[in-house]
Amino acid sequence: MSAELLVTVVIPTRDRQELVATAVASILRQSYSRLEALVLDDGSRPPVARAALPDDERVQLLRLESPRGSGAARNVGIRHARGSLVAFLDDDDAWRPDMLRRLVDALVSHGEEAAAAECGYDLWEDGRVTFRYVPDPGRDLRRMLIERPALQPSTVLVRRSALEELGGFDEELQRTEDWELWIRLADRYDVAVVPEVLVDRQADHSKPTEAMLEGYVELVRRLEPRFAQLSPAERRRVLATHMFVEGLLHAALGRPADARRAFWAAWRRDPRRWLALAHLSRTVFGERPWLAARAVWRRTRALALRTAGRDPLVRRW
Which of 24, 93, 175, 300 could link 154 by a cystine bridge, Cβ 3.0 to 4.6 Å? Predict the structure, then answer.
């Protein structure tokens, strides 16, 4: 039955014509061929040229004349989708050949109670893998999403009917619109898990923006009613996580005083969060000592994990 399902792949892009061509090529290499690829040009200057994309009748190019953000671009793709299943691929990521087949099979076998399926990914930086995420089939996804964005767009396959029912992505949010959608999705449906690495993602070195900070703060505000449902210890830990991330964003925006306040608040809520203290020292002593100390810590941690027979790259959430 899964072989009969059409998958629509939505790829938002802006001003990255060469990258998106590589992403589309990884779609066309899929062992699951019943698909269409919709490239959403989010106001690129100059516009993405159709000739720059692979010559395949399954590939279509749609253009938004002015930039509206990845959430809006994905929503346009959902509205144009012909497939009963929708997948999303960021323009700097790539799928391994069996990605779609494995996720379609998992979603179909899971039954109608599941609206999505997810797999793992490798994160690449300077030509090497620096992080490996493998989803845990036994996780409590609803609980996890209160604390962190446990799903990534490039690793998820979703039923189009569920996306339409949920109203798609919230276009007012910047860089957290996918996280917010997964929260609403997990409230109503199960998410099937394929505990394999089937996606290659690239580390994002772009500097955070004011809109990104505002989007994060707004999402945390929307989560506040859920915090009250947690145990006191769990609530402290979750709030410490969010304060820590806000500190990272303030630091990246060149606001050391705001970053110090956030890191200090994170540590006070959860004294076991020693990374908050480490980053607090970062705002005091500067970037050079911090980067040197971080490099030493990463090498030491990797050696300790390998000695214990564990892969230092793997995270299971």
Answer: 93
